[in-house]
Amino acid sequence: MRILIGADTYAPHVNGASYFAQRLAVALTARHEVHVAAPSTTLRSHTTFSADGVIEHRVRSFAVPGHPGYRFCPPLGLRAEAARILDEVQPDVVHVQSHFPLCRALIRAARERGLLVIATNHFMPENLIHYLPIGTAGRASLHGWAWRDAARVFAEADIVTAPTPYAAALATMSGVAGPVLPISCGIDLTRFRTEAPSADLRRTFNLAANPIITYVGRLDAEKHVDVLIQSFALIQSSTPAKLLLVGTGAEHRSLATLAEDLGVADHVVFTGFLPDEDLPAAYAATTVFVNAGTAELQSLVTLEAMASARPVIGADAAALPHLVVNGETGYLFPPGDVAALADRLRSILENPVHAAELGYQARRAAEQHDESRTVAAFENLYAIRRPTPAAATPHPAPTDHPATAGHRTPGSHPTTAGQRTPGSHPTTAGHPA
Predict the structure, then answer these.
(1) Biased-composition ranges for Polar residues (predicted)?
(2) Do 121 and 234 reside in the same domain of the chain?
């Protein structure tokens, strides 16, 4: 099968949606011809072949102000560029990863050609609007508009998926026509395992044999790393632990200043960007992993820590409770509650046997998200129908594809298209039970 993945964020961008698109594309090359349409790193479009066997169609883009390394494709001329790519590739299916300009253009061009369109939503307005200086009322208004815009675009897709039951229910309740199928982003269990070597990383960052509290991810506002630093300050005097912060972001400087002000800077290690191949060592060095974020649709880094058999502490918000089971794989804490997080950290750091038990259960839970299941689930969706370009119209008439596969026709009513209730699990789509 010839598959085209569309992504408005892709390598070298550092975020969960980018990593998922990259990993899915590479995994699919084992049985398929895989193309990716994504922003170029320059003002020119070009096609290149990756070392992993993916054919990349890079589309001219501009830098995102204030976010070094991020690029976006301006809408002007994108419809023609999307049409050119589709006519050149002639894919059997188009799988977009967002509703932003490049993917939006690909969806519309694909519909015009009668191609099967699958859309995966990784978007939450909270990940973007907090950067805008428009006040609380302005953010609330923009939040609603952002979801309406996403719903309008995804209405043109045949199938919409999201990484978790929470993410699927959120999209549906925010106006995306159902069914929205929950399919985990998945995890490579061969890379993230219980005993990866970590000695080199410990030497590099002078971690010695200390217990390590770890966070991996962007150092941005919605990740609430400041809450973790404040909690660490409450327990630092009573533990030899160090705090390892892996990643970069807009809040790096303010977080370093916070650590200084709280008197714990000597015990907090900012690694900066770590290459993907070094992440297993970071998790292996970890005693307990913490994610205080409140805008997670799944959290690949939390899954990676769990696959590494490390207990996790997460904010009781968004999709994290789908991974963090209180007292089994780790602990939840009320979002923003510094004292509660400090108590959870103490309970794990002071009881290594209990920490190991939590880690064991975390690994077992992560095994339900094996990447092979994710790939198989999407392959099943890709095979729902074959393209019929000769009979293509912008809005094809309904067909009698099985409702259990989640097929939608543009404009179909959610209830007649197999609408799910929040929390249901369409196992026919391959989502881990």
Answers:
(1) 412-427
(2) no
- In terms of domains, do 44 and 109 share one? yes
Alpha helices, H only, 57-204: 78-89, 101-112, 126-129, 135-154, 165-173, 199-204
CA distance 109 to 210: 55
Of 121, 73, 119, 122, nearest to 96 by C-alpha is 119
Tokens of 5: 């993945």
**Residues sharing a CB contact under 8 Å with residue 82, sequence separation 6 or more, in sequence order:** 37, 102, 105, 106, 108, 109
| pLDDT tens per residue across span 295-326 | 999 999 999 999 999 999 999 999 999 999 99
89: domain CATH number?
A: 3.40.50.2000
User: Are 359 and 375 in a shared domain?
Assistant: no
What is the C-alpha end-to-end distance of the chain, expressed in Å? Answer: 27
HSE-up of residue 65 (Cα within 13 Å, Cβ side) = 2
Boundaries of domain holding 348:
199-368
Same domain, 99 and 204: no
**Inside any domain, residue 191:** no
| Cβ atoms of 33 and 2 closer than 8 Å | yes
Contact present, 387 and 208 (Cβ < 8 Å): no
Task: Determine if residue 59 is left, alpha or beta; phi over 0 gives left, psi from -120 to 50 gives alpha, anything else beta.
Answer: beta
d(CA 129, CA 149): 14
Amino acid at 103: C
Cis peptide before 179 (omega within 30 of 0): yes
Query: Residues 257, 181: one domain?
Result: no
Higher pLDDT, 427 or 283: 283
Q: How many domains does the chain have?
A: 2
**Same domain assignment for residues 23 and 52:** yes
Clarify whether residues 95 and 224 are in a common domain. Answer: no
- Separation of alpha carbons 187 and 27, rounded Å: 11
β partners of residue 72: 62
Of 350, 368, 386, which residue sits at a domain end?
368
Predicted confidence (pLDDT) per residue in 232-255, tens digit: 999 999 999 999 999 999 899 999
Query: Could you tell me if residue 423 is inside a domain?
Result: yes
Gap between the Cα atoms of 17 and 7, Å rounded: 8
- Strands 55-59, 46-49: pairing kind: antiparallel
How far apart (Å, rounded) are the C-alpha atoms in residues 291 and 316?
A: 10
> In this structure, which amino acid lies at residue 306?
M
- For 381-414, the pLDDT digits (tens) are 999 974 455 444 444 433 333 333 344 443 343 3
Q: Where are the alpha helices (DSSP H) in 383-414?
A: none
